[in-house]
Amino acid sequence: RQARAAGGRWAVANGEGAGRDASVAQSDGEGEARQECAMDALAWQALVSPGAVVELWRDRTIRFARVLESPEGGRSFTARWMEDCAVADGDTDESTGRAFVKASMDEVVSVWPTYLSEASAAEFVAARGEAELLIANARPRTLELEALHASLCGFAKNNPRGCVSAVGAADALFASEQIRHPSELVGTICAALLLSLDSVRFKRAPAGYGWRALPKSVATARAYEAFEKRCAHAIGREKEQRSREINDNSSISTVWSRDDMEILRLIELCAASGKSFPRAAVPVFSKLGFESNANGARSFLQSVGFWSASDAHYGPSIQRDSDGGAPKELLAFPPAVLAEAAHQREKIEARRRILASKDGRSEAGLWSYMGKVAVCVDDVGANFRDDAVSCYELPSGDGHASRQIVVVVHVADVSAVVCEGSALDDAARNRAQSIYLPTGPLHMLPPVLMEAVSFSETAPSDAVSIAMTICTDSGELVRYKIARSLVPPVVCYTFDAAKEAISAMGSNNGHPKAVMRHRDSRGDAALALLVEAASAMSRADGGRRKRDRSDFVSVRLKGDRVTVQQYAFSTIHEAMDEVLNSAGSCLRRYARHHKVYLPERRGSEFFAMRCGTAPLRKYMDLVVQRQIKAILQYERPAKREDMVALNKWLESRLVETKKLVQAHREDALLASLSSHVSTQSRLADLGRAALSSGAVAPASVPLDSSAGPSAVSAPVESPSILRARVMSVRNGQVRVRLSDTGLSAVSPLPSDPLLAAALEPNASVRVAVRRVDLSSKIVHVQLLSL
């Protein structure tokens, strides 16, 4: 009691070996001191005394009781339920009206310490209600025992160090800030309920020792067993719905646990990518009658209702396959999510009709840019536009001596249609971001909604706009303003068309051509101002962002054909990159000024210069937009602890996604390169056969058409010649990175001493690919020259 009064927390947990059962930890302002009490293996039984609170496991449910009488013969005792209710096999104390029962020592899960046992029954009932609300209202990826299980699952079965009590679990949850409640009683009840509900990772330990953490392999097997039962139930409900022709999506919705969602995510990624089928799911698929491949994964996801089987009731399609089937991107969501997306699409279309009828007039609380020109610059074939830019020059003499340009970055108001806690929000949060695999994208939101909320070429749109005033002489940000806004119909450019427009402006002394090929010229002047302002900002920061940028390589797989496209960033790429980064910086400054937290962590590998400008593709940016709008609309933003928990969850998802995308890109590139090398080898064999027969004269066959006119042709014996850069030289081997694909390759050290001496990191070389080992994922090459 004295330690708790000084601010410490007493944690009773099972200890080491047979001679340790509990530990008491207390802390003060100067540091932390731990005091361990040695107890023999049966010492916990001495704690079962009148007045003590015990956790009992009865009818596969955790119950809380107060001991009335000491154990009789060491095996049973009389207790009274803490809750004011009777049980079927219990008697009732007429004087108190509360049920009491005979309990066995074998039913005891753990005994609470004295300071918690002092709580009255009324305090306990109130605390239990708060604990249940805490669990029910917990945000995703909070109140999890995964970290606690990871710290305990390595101990042997009979080692008490692998066990944990509710008090010990509560202490861990308090330390990780997953429980942020002032009452330790509420935290302990919450931890006890969580341990009893987690049948995948924890199992009842011997009486009095709490819960035992199961080995990781056993926990995984249990997760898949529970997943199989839930899937069988979901499939049965789906079949019943189809037989009765029920169209109500809510009637077949299945509540998936967090472990189920992790398994479904792996299966979903397999269905989208065509590879990496999870091995642990093979027995589940076999019992349920599905093939363990990508096609089986798609059929399974549709059968359990995790993917929609038809888009007939969920709005128009974005694109259809050549065979007329529904696009995979549209159906890769549960029916309830697609139904909500279609409903939100109708609301967006109705809203745009209202905005169009006002003929450019602004609404209260919205900043109107209807008199300006807004441009969207994106890749060819881009269907979804969540950012646009307006640029105009401030008139001279308006209180400033230097020339100033206003660059306005408009971000589509996605948070207005993806409400927190909705089915759309749950789906977006689970995916964390759109995943771009070689076989195609797996979008964060349904494409039917992404298309609707994107900036339109024919109707005005709602947006959150960041207006930045740039001094062209110094490149400094003079001022910025963030507001909800109305954006006019946008003028869309591809990067090539924007580059052509800027070149046309320069060739006509700054005056746009009256008519441009394939493109409306209204936004040409805005593009010229955009490039000018971005160049000034780049000079101000010394080109730091440009130096940190790396070119992007796109890998697309269609059938057996792999297309690799390396983007060479042009002036318009760099200009858009600069203004979007600056807009993200303004959003951070604005949130910091209003003491509002964002779901990001400075110093993380996922801390990007861009912030809040891609809410259609990144859940982090969607939440940033919600926080900014809360400031603008004088609402209460999310708390810091919620943003920290969300950031941890998103970073874990992003790590998984990054590894997955890199692995699939590497597999596609290796398979393509292996096929190419085999084809070239067959051609070389044919060439050698023709030479030996005298049918053709000796000649060289150019194999590196991308190397330009100065490339040296390879003899018929060489499979393929590529450009590369040296990564390292060690142990008689040279590791290089192929420039066109980004794959790493190894080569023996060349015998030419001059060439070997010139091999330094980042040196450009030409290599001949000799062999691709798909099993070890190693590309073997031979260095030819610098």
Description:
There is one protein chain. It contains 21 helices and 27 strands. The protein has 786 residues and is α+β, with helices and mostly antiparallel strands. The protein has a six-stranded antiparallel beta sheet. It has a five-stranded mixed beta sheet with strand order 12-19-18-15-14. The longest helix has 54 residues, at 640-693. Residues 1-41, 85-97, 246-252, 312-326, 509-519, 546-551 and 696-719 have low confidence and may be disordered.
Strand content: 15-25%
What does the overall shape look like?
A: globular
Fraction of residues in helix? 25-40%
Describe the strand arrangement of the main beta sheet, using strand numbers.
6-7-5-4-3-8
Number of strands: 27
Secondary-structure content class: alpha+beta
Please name the defining characteristics of this protein.
786 residues; alpha+beta; six-stranded antiparallel β-sheet; 21% strand; disordered N terminus
Gist?
The chain is 37% helix and 21% strand. It is an alpha+beta fold.
Question: What are the SSEs and their pairings?
Answer:
Layout: H1 2-5, E1 20-28, E2 31-38, E3 53-58, E4 61-67, E5 76-81, E6 91-93, E7 98-104, E8 108-111, H2 114-117, H3 121-136, H4 146-152, E9 163-164, H5 166-175, H6 184-197, E10 202-204, E11 211-213, H7 216-244, H8 258-273, H9 282-288, H10 294-303, H11 328-331, H12 335-357, E12 367-368, E13 375-378, E14 387-393, E15 404-412, H13 423-431, E16 435-437, E17 440-442, H14 447-453, E18 461-471, E19 477-487, E20 491-494, H15 495-507, H16 524-540, H17 544-548, E21 553-558, E22 561-566, H18 571-593, H19 619-632, H20 640-693, E23 721-730, E24 733-738, E25 744-748, H21 753-757, E26 764-773, E27 778-785
Parallel strand pairs: 12-19, 13-20, 25-27
Antiparallel strand pairs: 1-2, 3-4, 3-8, 4-5, 5-7, 6-7, 9-11, 10-11, 14-15, 15-18, 16-17, 18-19, 21-22, 23-24, 23-26, 24-25, 26-27
Helix pairs in contact: 3-6, 5-6, 7-9, 8-10, 12-14, 15-16, 16-18
